[in-house]
């Protein structure tokens, strides 16, 4: 989880490769209208996000039923959004990619070929509810090289070898 530009796609992809797990990007589950709205510079509302989060929750259940392990990139900015993804499923961990607005703005300004405009970053931070301790989040600073961030997440996941 994390705001646009915090590195969700990048870290999820590298983390999944490291673990040999599947990587899925929450952006693939947006209805076309949501992508059009963000591309036009408008933030999504809760109403826009519910069907999208439900689709990701369904995918988590599908993966779980097939016994497949996965890393899923999803902004999941509010606790209510995370509840949809996590509630009732005990085999999920949340990884929060934590960084300052200045650092993320600089990364977004340099990013090529992406529908999400830099102008939406302020609304992403306004919407963000940092995870509480009861959510057992793994919180990592994004002010580090990608592989160092992946190292930190793997270490905090404390996985039991299979
Ligand atoms: N640790 C890092 N160090 C330097 N650059 C990074 C790091 N992580 C990500 N980036 C770069 O920052 C930009 C944003 O990363 P990325 O697209 O993965 O973010 P995101 O959270 O998936 O964004 P969105 O939610 O808008 O899809 C990309 O250009 C990426 O290459
Ligand atoms: O909740 C949201 O506002 C959206 O999920 C956005 O965060 C985008 O999907 C993503 O960040 C852009 O790729």
Automatic annotation (TrEMBL):
Signal peptide: none annotated. It catalyses: D-gluconate + ATP = 6-phospho-D-gluconate + ADP + H(+). Pfam families: SKI. Its EC number is 2.7.1.12. The lineage of its organism: Bacteria, Pseudomonadati, Pseudomonadota, Alphaproteobacteria, Hyphomicrobiales. One of its GO terms (biological process) is D-gluconate metabolic process. Pathway: Carbohydrate acid metabolism. One of its GO terms (molecular function) is gluconokinase activity. NCBIfam families: therm_gnt_kin. The keyword Transport does not apply. Belongs to the gluconokinase GntK/GntV family. The keyword Nucleotide-binding applies. Keywords: ATP-binding, Gluconate utilization, Kinase, Nucleotide-binding, Transferase. It is an enzyme of class 2 (transferase). This is Gluconokinase. One of its GO terms (cellular component) is cytoplasm.
